[in-house]
Design goal:
The chain has strands at about 5, 20-25, 30-35, 50, 85, 95, 100-105, 110-115, 120-125, 140-145, 155, 160-165, 165-175, 180-185, 190, 200-205, 215-220, 220-225, 230-235, 240-245, 250-255, 265-270, 280, 290-295. It has about 300 residues and is mainly β.
Length: about 300
Amino acid sequence: MIFKQALLSLSLAISTATAYHLAVVDQNTKTVRVFPRDAATWNKDAIYWSFTADPDVGWFEHDDWADLDDVKIRKTADLAGHESADLDDVVWEATPGDNPHSLERIPHLGAFVASSSDPGKLTLYVPTDASDVNNLSKIKKSHEYKLDMAHGVLWHSGKLWATGKDYLYKFDVVGKGKDIKLVLDGEGIPLKKIPGHKKNGHDLSASYKDPNVLLVTHTGGAFAYNIKTGVFETLMAVTKIKSLVQHSSGEYAWVRGEKNELGQYVSFSDEKDPKTVTDRRGWGDAEFYKAKIFDPDYE
Ligand SMILES: *[C@@H]1O[C@H](CO)[C@@H](O)[C@H](O)[C@H]1NC(C)=O
């Protein structure tokens, strides 16, 4: 899977505590669609905002946007007034190569970090002018850091977190402008083993319920990692959890790969029993990879 990733900034009008929206990445339609979680059916009429990555490429050309993998909601630029966006609305892009899986923006410093899984690296993009970090045309690639099977990358509690093979990693982002560097903080944190399964780290999300919890998925399951205690709690001992999020109400929402490793539904469950599906949304020929809460609050 090779693709480009872009950060999009979306304006919000979300008020009540439980009526949240989810941004869903569908590889089949090459879209990111934002749906109200509670819409009875996730059909065309329910779409709140959408991004379509469908370039006009000939059969002989390489399509960098072939497999959309992730979406994060960050305040980067203003798309106010648009209900749908396409490649013409992309304000910054990069092609890190080696099968990129996720992208994060470092607040205030203007840097981006992309994770690539094969064989595995983080690519750092930094502002060439430290006094003008908001001008996206001045943000350029600076370093690559080897990280075996890097998948999830997330800014949380003042650190950059990343999942890879067997480990969760924590980095400090130091310096300014061209001098920005990632510095590993401590050793890799061993992911929790599920007997009979590998531990290839996958998705990484912040719990919107508990600021001390990172939601981590790997080959064999989904976990809540407490950044204060350093303890992993197993939420689901099942394979192919492509993404997992938790809303401030406590509700979990996740995508599990079914047909061809991809998901046709976003499943929901109660906080007290993450194993039991209480509700789901989607459609039969969807190819969901990740579903993220539509909320830019991540610092
Ligand atoms: C951003 O940087 C580019 C390249 O240096 C420059 O041409 C452009 O005017 C800048 N934009 C703003 C809004 O400052």
